[in-house]
Design goal:
about 200 residues; 3 domains; mainly alpha; single chain
C-alpha cells in the first residue's frame, strides 16, 4: 500500500489529467482532435504553393495580363452557356431564360432580317427600275411579315410568363424576345440550349 501525502497527487494521475486537458483543448479548437489550419495553409495544400512574386515590373505586368485573360475567358464561356453569375443584368433570371427558350424553339421571321435586308439593299442600287421596285416591295412585304410574327411572339411570351411566373413584370420582356428573334440563331448570346422543334 502506497502512502499519499495530503495535497499531493500521484505522478500518473497528474500526467493523465494533463493529457485529458490537452485532448479537450484540441477537440474544441479543431473539432477533430487537431488545431484548425490557417486559411493560407489550407489553400496551399489544395492548390500548391503560391508562385514567387515577380522580380521586375515587366514580369508583373505580363502576369497580370495573363490573369485577366483567364478571367475574361471564364466570363465569356460562362455567359455563353447561360450561367447567371456571368451574364449581364439584362439576361439574368429564370424569366429571361424562359423568354430565350421561347424564341429559340421557334422558326422566327426575324432571323431572316439580315438576309432580306442585304438582298433589298443590293436591289436598290441596281440601275434597273424594275429590280429596284421589286427590292422595295420585297423589303416592305418582309416588314409586314416581321410585324405579324412579332405580334404572335409577344402574345406567346406574355402567356408563358403569366402561367409560369404570375408575379413577374412583363414590361420589357416582349421587346427582349423580339430583339433576340431578329438575330441569326448561331449569333445569339447567350447561346441557345434548346432545339427549334422543342416546346418551351
Amino acid at each position: 500500500m502506497k502512502l499519499r501525502l495530503p495535497g499531493r497527487r500521484d505522478r500518473a494521475e497528474t500526467t493523465d489529467a494533463a493529457s485529458a486537458d490537452l485532448t479537450d483543448q484540441l477537440v474544441r479548437a479543431g473539432g477533430k482532435g487537431r488545431p484548425t489550419p490557417k486559411r493560407s495553409e489550407a489553400q496551399g495544400r489544395r492548390t500548391g504553393p503560391p508562385p514567387p512574386p515577380p522580380t521586375t515590373r515587366k514580369e508583373a505586368y505580363k502576369r497580370m495580363r495573363a490573369q485577366q485573360a483567364v478571367r475574361r475567358a471564364e466570363t465569356r464561356q460562362g455567359a455563353a452557356r447561360g450561367d447567371d453569375s456571368y451574364l449581364p443584368a439584362r439576361d439574368r433570371g429564370p424569366v429571361r431564360k424562359l423568354v430565350r427558350d421561347i424564341v429559340d424553339t421557334r422558326r422566327n421571321v426575324g432571323s431572316f432580317f439580315l438576309v432580306i435586308a442585304g438582298v433589298a439593299l443590293i436591289g436598290t442600287i441596281v440601275p434597273s427600275i424594275a429590280v429596284r421596285s421589286y427590292a422595295s416591295f420585297l423589303l416592305f412585304g418582309f416588314f409586314l411579315l416581321l410585324l405579324a410574327d412579332s405580334v404572335v411572339l409577344s402574345r406567346r411570351i406574355r402567356r408563358a410568363v403569366g402561367e409560369q411566373f404570375p408575379d413577374a413584370k412583363v414590361r420589357g420582356l416582349t421587346w427582349y424576345g423580339i430583339s433576340r428573334s431578329t438575330m441569326i440563331r448561331r449569333w445569339r448570346f447567350p447561346k441557345p440550349d434548346v432545339d427549334p422543334a422543342a416546346t418551351a
